[in-house]
Each structure stands twice: as C-alpha cells, then as structure tokens.
Write a structure and sequence with these properties.
It is a single chain. The protein is α/β, with parallel strands linked by helices. It contains twelve helices and 20 strands. The radius of gyration is 21 Å and the shape is globular. The C terminus is likely disordered. Bound molecules: zinc ion. Zinc ion (ZN) binds next to loops.
C-alpha cells in the first residue's frame, strides 16, 4: 500500500483536509524512500540537518529544496538503472540538458496525474474522435522519445482520428520543414471533416500557421466548437515580439472559431512532471499532487500570496529519482484561488526566459527554432 498511489487516485483539484493529510503522508513516504535508497539524497538531507519526517506544512517548508540545475549537473537515480524505462531531456540556455529518470512506477503515475488534471479541466473526452495538429516533429521519424511521449500523452485524452505533425521530414533536403501551404491544406481538411480539432504546441508556430492561412485564403476557419488549443511556452509571436495572452486568445477565436475558454496554456518542467494547465478562465491551478511555495531569492523564506519570488515545486510521485522538492529559476507568484469554481491555488509564472525548461511540445519547438 502506498500513500502516493492513494493520493493520485483522488481527483486533481479535490483540495481539502483529507487530501492535505494524504499529501503529507505521501511526501513522507517518498522522502524516506529516497533517503534510504539514494546515497546522494541522504547526504544532502544530512548536510541540511533535515530529519526525513513530514507531518505538517511546516515540515514541507523545512524540506530543503534542490536547485533545478542539480539535475543538469548530476544523474541522481534512486532505483537500479535497469528499472529506468524512460529518460526525458529538456533544453537549457547554457546548452546543458536536464534529465529525468522514470521507472515504470513513476511513469504510470505521471500519466495518471496528467489524465486527472486534464479530466478535471474538461479536456478529457474518451469517446470523442478528434483531429490533431501537433506543431512538433513527427516523432516516428525524429525518433525522439520526449516528443513521442508528450504527443502520446496529450493526444491520448480522446480518440485520435488523424494526427498531423507540422515539422515533416523532407527526404531530398534531409531536413525537417515547416511547410505552411501543407498545414493550410490540413486545416481545411479538418474543417471539412467537422470533427473536433486540437492544435498542440508552441504558440508562435500556431500563430504563424493561422496567420498564413488568413492571409493567403482571405477567410477564417470554422472548427468544431469542442476544439481546443493547447499551448506551452508563452505568448511570443516571433522572437523578441510578445503578444499578450488576451491578444492570442482573441486571434484564435477570430481565426478558428475555437472559443477563447478552450485556449489553454500549460507550464511544466521536465524535472517536476506535474502539469499546470489553465482553467477556462486562464488560471493555472495547483493540483493536490503538488505543493508550490514561493521563496525569497535572498533567504529562501516563504513569501505570502501575491509576492514574487522563486517557485519551489514539491511533489511526492517520483519514485526513481529524488526530484521531489526543486527550486526553479523562473520568477513566479502564487494567488489563493480563482472564480472558475475549481479549488486550488493559482500559479503565475513571471519572466519566462526564452529557451528554458518547459515541458510538452514547447521544448521541442524551441529546439526547432534554434535548428531552423
Ligand atoms: Zn480557475
């Protein structure tokens, strides 16, 4: 019996005394697991004078966070290497890649967490047949485990009709190409089929493709009202040129008829794995599987709601490597809640750096920008 699995069996935003207690039990279970089986983590806790006991929020606050860069420098693994079934990397500004190491237990859990979060946000429709346009490489050609994993995950909340990848491999040039006329044809075909559509990926590419369609066809698309735009990586139209979230949402509504409440950005980190996905009002709620503390960059003390600091992401689900309390280098603010009806604190990421560690399609899209 595992408290972690009990926690993950609960609905994503079912915040209350019971799930809070379960979170503490699950975190204690995980901290003790890594303390016992990962010598580097054991030494880290020893050095920080932390007893691996988590019985209250104060203990969660006292659990020393590891800076996210640790996972760029060191391969920390708690289980035998042959138990690792998937290792995903993210790009970093310094060129160093951050890795995660997932065993089957952690992989099953991260999939379940993603499912539960999207389910609670109204984005899971197991009966619905959907056409997908992923603004990523075709993972079958790229043999990219990370993209393949992300796309499998994010296209797996519905039945898949067609999955089109916008970065197609051209045999003659031996390069991946972003073929705008071909994407425009795919858009028209999806419109004619009349099934719900999901556009996945980096907002800049989605913008570019729809803008191209508008300009070359002198009309807007009319996709099924159950369609979604699922983005990751912020609202940059082109490099150095930002559009606001509101501008992006308005553009999507105009260009595709997809309701603004169906445009959902996601923030995630490869080292953390819990997805923070926008609700219908555009706010990223913290699910019960994680706790976020905003810490002062000066002394790491916990800051109150509304004050900007470094986010400390804490989650108990990772069994194979000790990335359970990490300090990120983006600035963020936490707010007590949102008026959409879902519980959970709201995370606002401030000052995203251009090519950092965002999960999902964005990582690969950003790598693509550098390669184009
Ligand atoms: Zn909300």
């Amino acid at each position: 019996m595992s408290y972690v699995d009990d926690l993950i069996a609960c609905s994503a935003f079912d915040h209350g005394p019971q799930t809070h207690t379960l979170f503490l039990q699950a975190l204690q279970e995980t901290v003790q697991h890594h303390d016992a089986l990962c010598p580097a983590y054991h030494n880290f806790l020893l050095y920080q004078h932390f007893q691996p006991q988590i019985q209250s929020l104060e203990d969660v606050i006292a659990l020393p966070p590891m800076h996210v860069n640790i996972f760029k420098e060191y391969d920390l693994v708690t289980v035998p290497q042959d138990k690792i079934v998937l290792s995903l990397t993210s790009s970093g500004t310094s060129g160093k890649k951050s890795k995660n190491f997932l065993d089957q237990i952690s992989l099953d859990r991260v999939k379940k967490i993603a499912w539960n979060v999207h389910l609670a946000l109204g984005m899971v429709a197991p009966e619905s047949l959907v056409n997908y346009c992923c603004f990523t490489y075709d993972p079958h050609v790229a043999k990219d485990l990370g993209t393949a994993f992300t796309d499998q995950l994010l296209t797996g909340f519905t039945q898949r009709n067609q999955v089109y990848y916008t970065f197609q491999y051209n045999q003659s040039t031996q390069k991946f190409e972003f073929n705008l006329p071909q994407i425009a044809e795919v858009f028209e075909s999806f419109e004619q089929q009349g099934l719900p559509v999901r556009l996945l990926g980096f907002p800049a590419f989605i913008f570019e493709a729809l803008d191209y369609y508008q300009k070359t066809h002198q009309r807007n698309l009319k996709f099924h009202p159950d369609s979604f735009v699922m983005t990751g990586g912020g609202w940059k139209k082109q490099e150095n040129k930002k559009v606001t979230r509101q501008e992006f949402v308005q553009f999507i509504e105009e260009a595709t008829s997809i309701p603004g409440s169906h445009v959902r950005d996601m923030f995630g980190m490869v080292e953390h794995g819990v997805p923070y996905v926008e609700c219908r009002l555009g706010n990223m709620h913290v699910p019960i599987y994680a706790k976020i503390l905003i810490r002062s960059p000066q002394d790491l003390s916990v800051l109150p709601y509304g004050e900007m600091g470094l986010p400390n992401f804490i989650t108990p689900y990772l069994h194979s490597y000790p990335s359970i309390s990490i300090l990120a280098s983006d600035f963020a603010v936490l707010e007590p809640g949102c008026s959409c009806g879902l519980a959970g604190e709201v995370l606002r990421i401030k000052g995203r750096a251009g090519t950092t560690k965002h999960a999902g399609c964005a990582i690969h899209a950003e790598e693509t920008i550098q390669k184009r």
